[in-house]
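Typical record is below.
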Amino acid sequence: MALDENILNKLEAASAEARVVFWEDAKGEFADDVEGLVVPGAEVLVARGNGLALKRRVLRQEPEGRFVIYRAGGAPVVDEDFLLGIKAFAKPFSAAQSASWADELGLPAGVAPALAPHAEFFRSKERRRALAALVAGADWLAGEADAAGVELAMVAVCCGASDLHRIDAYRSIAIRMLEQWAADDDSAMRLVSRCGLEGALWSALSDGFGYSPEAPGVEDFAYACVLAACSDLTGDAPTMGPDVNVMLSTMANDQRRSEAFKELVDRTCGEVAKCCDLEALPLDVLVAHRVLPNVDDVIARRLAADVETRADVAARVAEVRGRRASAPLSAAWLPAYDALAAASEILSGEAGWAAEAKAAETPGGLFSAYADGLWRMDRAYRAFTTFKAAAHRAGIECLDKLGPQVEASYARSLGALAVAWQDLVMAAGKWPPAEGIALQRRFYDERVRVAMGDGPVAVVVSDALRHEAGLELAERLRAGGKLRVDADAMLSALPSYTQLGMAALLPGSELSCDPGTQRASVDGVDATGVAARQKILAAAVPGAAAVSAKDVLAGEAAGLRGAGLAYVYHNRIDLTGDKRDSETETFRAVSDTMGELCSLVSRLGTMGFATVFVTADHGFIYQQDPASFEAVDFPLLSAVTAADDAKHSRRFLMAGQVPPEPQLIVMGAAEAGLAGDFQVAVPKGTRRLRLQGSGALFVHGGMTLQETVVPCLRVRAAKGAQAARPVGFDLLTGGQTVITGASLSFEVFQAEPVGEGVLPVSLRASLVDHDGKVVSEAVAVELASASADAAERRFRVTLFVGTGVANGAELTLRLERRVGATSRYLVEKEAKYKVRRNFGMDF
């Protein structure tokens, strides 16, 4: 046992007062520590069978010398004690290590004997300093400290806790045990054992959480905690107190411990789930649960079954998703809920979309119907495909059965719309099929030229940015509240391929292309490639520029400053989709494009462009399952394309002469609105032409609305415009002002749907005492519902209240709003409560 400074100081003081100090250590506590001991001004002599020699030296050989004589094990019988004479005149010294520790800590002497069994604890100066801090400030050691209270403090130190409130110390001790168990680390438990504090540890967990098994253990404690937090699923009375919920909530909401919480639940959920009949529980009970991640599997499977019936449950799925978003371990399941909402929209919307397409009597009517709402089938399919893939990567399989149904339903909706549109176009016998439709080829004259009257104009042309994606981009650009974004649709040139679409956006009156090379021209001038387009632009507007988006984003397009007109070419979607090896990443490319275009618009605004247009050369069709579309069986295709004046892609064929084929729609160049003497053929419906070495999932070039309706966004600074605001909400307590049990339930009402100009809000709900200290679990609440139904924007919240809250205490229910994506929260709503728990209530 190491000699502490307190004992050494006393020994030095005694030696300074007498020539000889005699230290009789009856228990031999310090026998190993006096070897090498140095006492200033004196020599330390150890009596160990050498009594006569020591007596001779002290009394005869060095009568003036100063000595500290140490003897372990107690004095021998008087007749055999050769040092009895020296002991008679020497200054006696005694030391009990436990008494020294008590004195060092400022503890009463009566506590000292209880410290002796924990000698290992006191070997560390750091542990003694931490214990001293708790002795000085812990509320459970205020007044007359007792042995149990000091042992609790020692356990807290072993667990790295410095809390001054008893209930907080219990939670910190429990959390350290759980997070180390989850990490296969037993260092804290081994230290507790070495220090003889296991009994104190289990007493702390019993007092704090009601954990009192016959054979306690950390693993058993871990399972007991998770099982207790799942009492709403098991239907059994909780075997532990509500502080378990508070403690687990603390772990889940602490970024430093959230991974440990996840691992804790992952390791216990299998066995705990066996105690719960999840399949028999009502959906609302499952949705409200916050610990066991197994419930999400049951919830998702039930919702998937509802979706399969083709009932419109998209809003219900979105409401469930909003509630599950606040559960600590449900993040991996959110893509599954998003996929289910999209699947519901596709399956339930199929009949209505087909009926709307069939009801259109004119090309203009169907164009408007698609531009105004039928595009939702495409966004829903993109969402389903994207989120299903994310769920699959997370190991979620409940969507697998739904996938083929969604693919087939979307294919039918896509086909029905394609047939309705092509019938109207064939009846018109020309492209564009009607007057009054906004055309891509008139973009420059009707939009760019007009906008230049208000200042410099930039045109961003994003290859294959189809209409539904353009509308999503508009939503994102508006969300900041600093931009005014007008969005509508235009009909592209036919065939809907890159070179021709790019040319159609330029100044000029006559559009044409070479069927053998697919090179496009405007008024007879080649328009293929950025350099060629710049010449056409500069001829119309001196100083006009044409650059790549990469150069602008990289800060390498300084020459744009001062230009009256700039065309900026962006290529992410088409670059990804047009390659067989990467076409399955098309929708990821769409998502990436959103972020890049937002950055691009912002950069162009800072470069002085008063108006920024965002548009595209063409759209696209994408179908994940090759079985959902057909190939055109055209025996003469190879013979036609062997000629020098012919070339084809998956969705169009241009040649001097195209033989009749029932599966193709054939137009002369003039009928297609092009100059030249050749023919254009596109497959009917969504069929693909055979093309070796080319992908078939992502296609464009045909006349479907998905391929030919392109977005046109006009973006300007919104001077004085009101920024997008967080959605409003109310706290609904039902007039309740008293807490009578172990929990408090209330509702949060989202005042309006989120959408354009109204942003989602992340809240945190908790109960705090008069000092602002959190005394309940903290629960996250996500207000992100887009539903117009007010009932679907009411969110029920339950908080478990800690047992450390005294009866009669006044508490404040606090709703805090998260500031952006930061970890900061601002208090938004509060309600006052008084605790009046019934006498004898078991918590």
